[in-house]
Design brief:
The protein is of the alpha/beta class. The chain has helices at 20-31, 38-48, 54-73, 98-103, 116-124, 139-150, 171-184; strands spanning 8-13, 35-37, 77-81, 106-113, 160-164. It has one domain (8-184): P-loop containing nucleotide triphosphate hydrolases (Rossmann fold, 3-Layer(aba) Sandwich). The chain starts with 7 loop residues before the first strand and ends with a helix. The relative contact order is 0.24. It holds the Pfam family AAA_18.
């Protein structure tokens, strides 16, 4: 009798600019899992229709959330990275999470521990696609927003593994810890 494998996802969470994408890329490569980054979906939309206002940007973000979820639901195993909706604070920001448990009976949350101060500094440093409308954000408003958001992570959606992304971190060790957790879940 053939064994049916349970669908599983590794969900990388934390504040914007906390190192989630770097961690997710490494995990996907180490585990041989596909990687889905919600920003990739969003930036494809930006190329078709550059938002001229924050409101237009949010509308495109909601469309990309749907595309991200639809693509993820087609996969049996995947590493997912996004700015996830926090458990507390503003509920009009971030990718919703309620669908994750419906599609993936086995979830592991990898939380990138990063202070709001470090995330703010990083956020203000890189240049992202202009469609993100980062230029519309005042640094002091961004800092206050990240402090508020920081109380909403981790998400408590499955077994939790934390990596401190403010210091030098060992991604190979994290991949090993995720593999052990996957073995514990029996899938």
């Amino acid at each position: 009798m053939a064994t049916v494998e349970m669908k599983r996802a590794i969900v990388v969470t934390s504040l914007p600019a906390s190192g989630k994408t770097t961690v997710a890329r490494h995990l996907a490569a180490q585990l041989g899992y596909p990687l889905l980054d919600k920003d990739d979906f969003l930036e494809v939309l930006y190329e078709k229709q550059l938002p001229e206002t924050w409101r237009a940007r949010r509308a495109l973000s909601k469309i990309s959330d749907v595309q991200f979820q639809e693509r993820a639901s087609l996969l049996d195993r995947v590493v997912l990275v996004s700015h996830w909706r926090p458990t507390c604070g503003p509920q009009d920001t971030g990718t919703p999470t309620q669908w994750l448990r419906d599609h993936f009976p086995s979830l592991i949350e990898v939380h990138c521990k990063c202070s709001p101060e470090t995330a703010t500094t990083r956020f203000l440093s890189p240049t992202r696609h202009p469609g993100h409308r980062d230029q519309d954000r005042k640094p002091e408003d961004l800092a206050a927003s990240l402090v508020q958001l920081s109380n909403g992570y981790p998400l408590d959606i499955g077994p939790l593994l934390t990596i401190d992304t403010e210091t030098k971190f060992d991604l190979s060790d994290l991949a090993d810890r995720v593999a052990v957790e996957l073995g514990r879940s029996g899938v």
